[in-house]
Amino acid sequence: MKQTNVKPADGKLGIMVVGCGAVATTFMTGVLMARKGLAKPIGSMTQYDKIRVGRGSEKKYLHYKDIVPLADLNDIVFGTWDVYPQNAYQAAVYAEVLKAKDIEPVRDELEAIKPLKAAFDRNYAKRLDGDNVKNCKTRWEMVEALREDIRNFKKENGCARVVVIWAASTEIYVPYNEQYHGTLAALEKAMKDDDREHVAPSMCYAYAALTEGAPFIMGAPNTTVDIPAMWELAEKTKMPIAGKDFKTGQTLVKSGFAPILKVRNLGLAGWFSTNILGNRDGLVLDEPANFHTKEVSKLSTLETILRKEDQPDLYGNIYHKVRINYYPPRNDNKEGWDNLDIFGWMGYPMQIKINFLCRDSILAAPLLLDLTLLMDLAARAGRYGIQRFLSFFLKSPMHDYTKGEEAVNNLFDQYVMLKNAIREMGGYEADEEID
């Protein structure tokens, strides 16, 4: 490993997950099983991917941990918040994602992970009715209670560092409002005034994490850290932030397939996407106000890859539709259908159909591992504010829309950004070559 300014990954890393449902418990169980050598963390870039560093005779392909100092799986300690009081073992069994043979060997460790009371507002997720919630009178009280949780967790578990990641449900849509979200002072005032319309509970988690020196990752499409007030807080606390929404199934396909049309200069008339999903996420998204938050996130991917202003003949009039349907029999096994109406030479029409029968939490779990390890790395490297290099893992990557910046959604461009950030933190030259 080259000499870099990145601090070593000494001591325990606390990963505090907001939400102890299917995604969180699949992630935690998988890490605990992998530590015992009883499962493989397949799908994790930090555990499997190799990056080329150097050129010519100096060229080598190395795992991330051989380029930068990553936290070891054995050093991870899990904590969680949830509106339901079940411990991680009970929640994993209830989720019905993993088989008993993949949960029982780490039962004791999972049972020890008991959710802290959640900072929750039922108006933001009407379909959830858990009672393991904090009794906070104001949003500011929520922040203070969450800060105390993080401090206590860190102390009780002897953690050197903590990362907070949101793996809870999608909140109702909160549009950006400059009056409340434009500056840190305005957001703090709204929290102290208990403005429940403009301050989502997720903002309280993010504020608490950053203030306690913990990087924060938004894994749902909620309006949380993607507002100037939070960017200001990230600058002030010198903490990295990332979001939003884990890119797992259909959007992963979209961000990988749309570039095919782009590089071949094929036209797109319409892209219809629909999903059936039966887990708690599906239940929450069955509420129109919550679905709208997800819809905005899912729709943004295509338009930044196939830009009508660059190729009006090809992408000037795309009809893009996204649907999610709650269908309990499928539970966590989501099915995504995509229909693409494309056109080629002389405008002749063609079609592409994609049917992805995926397992939502199986695809999400490695993303939680990668995002938490890479955010911890970013913090130790002194990187703060929006971590654009993590766009690869996110459905609706953060960007400074106040300055006209657009998110990078092309999967292959995102991969170059990811590799270059790892190279730079490892003391190697950034490199535009994709190989």
TrEMBL record:
<dbReference type="GO" id="GO:0006021">
    <property type="term" value="P:inositol biosynthetic process"/>
</dbReference>
<dbReference type="Pfam" id="PF01658">
    <property type="entry name" value="Inos-1-P_synth"/>
</dbReference>
<dbReference type="InterPro" id="IPR002587">
    <property type="entry name" value="Myo-inos-1-P_Synthase"/>
</dbReference>
<feature type="transmembrane region" description="Helical">
    <location>
        <begin position="13"/>
        <end position="34"/>
    </location>
</feature>
<dbReference type="Pfam" id="PF07994">
    <property type="entry name" value="NAD_binding_5"/>
</dbReference>
<keyword id="KW-0812">Transmembrane</keyword>
<dbReference type="GO" id="GO:0004512">
    <property type="term" value="F:inositol-3-phosphate synthase activity"/>
</dbReference>
<keyword id="KW-0472">Membrane</keyword>
<feature type="domain" description="Myo-inositol-1-phosphate synthase GAPDH-like">
    <location>
        <begin position="249"/>
        <end position="361"/>
    </location>
</feature>
<dbReference type="InterPro" id="IPR036291">
    <property type="entry name" value="NAD(P)-bd_dom_sf"/>
</dbReference>
<comment type="similarity">
    <text>Belongs to the myo-inositol 1-phosphate synthase family.</text>
</comment>
<protein>
    <submittedName>
        <fullName>Myo-inositol-1-phosphate synthase</fullName>
    </submittedName>
</protein>
<dbReference type="InterPro" id="IPR013021">
    <property type="entry name" value="Myo-inos-1-P_Synthase_GAPDH"/>
</dbReference>
<dbReference type="GO" id="GO:0008654">
    <property type="term" value="P:phospholipid biosynthetic process"/>
</dbReference>
<keyword id="KW-1133">Transmembrane helix</keyword>
